[in-house]
Amino acid sequence: MSDFITVSSFSFSELEDQLNEARDKFSKALVHFGEQDSKMQPDEFFGIFDTFLQAFSEARQDLEAMRRRKEEEERRARMEAMLKEQRERERWQRQRKVHAGSALEEGGEFDDLVSALRSGEVFDKDLCKLKRSRKRSGAQALEVTRERAINRLNY
């Protein structure tokens, strides 16, 4: 039993030293945070920190949720823009296919005209027409007016 008393008295003295050290550190912490040493109890002091840390944690979670929502909205907007662009491209390609058919026909005519100009065929035909019109007499020549053809027939 004497061993128990010596061991427990030694342990008790160590606990008293640790308690005094904790009180000193607590009073230094109070001074550091601008509180009065005699009025503030440890429960009240550390309760303030607990409340702050809970509010901080909630704010962090709110910010994370806002960031996720913003990223989701941006992703959705990008997807909508891509879909719109794809639809526009498809619409443009459909219109291009429709216009391509008519453009090929027109393009073929244009190419034929360019070929005729290069080869001189157009001028040969025009010269023949010019010669034929010169051969006609003045009475047979058509009068160039803006009247309708039916009106000219009546006179």
From TrEMBL:
Keyword Ligase found: no
Coiled-coil intervals, chain numbering: 53-89
DAD domain segment(s): 104-135
InterPro entries membership: DAD_dom, FH2_Formin, FH2_Formin_sf, Formin_Homology
One GO BP annotation of this record: negative regulation of oligodendrocyte differentiation
UniProt keywords, alphabetically: Coiled coil
Domain of life: Eukaryota
Domain annotation FH2: ranges: 1-82
Alphabetical list of PANTHER family matching this protein: DISHEVELED-ASSOCIATED ACTIVATOR OF MORPHOGENESIS 2, FORMIN HOMOLOGY 2 FAMILY MEMBER
Name of the protein in question: Dishevelled associated activator of morphogenesis 2
Highest classification ranks of the organism: Eukaryota, Metazoa, Chordata, Craniata, Vertebrata
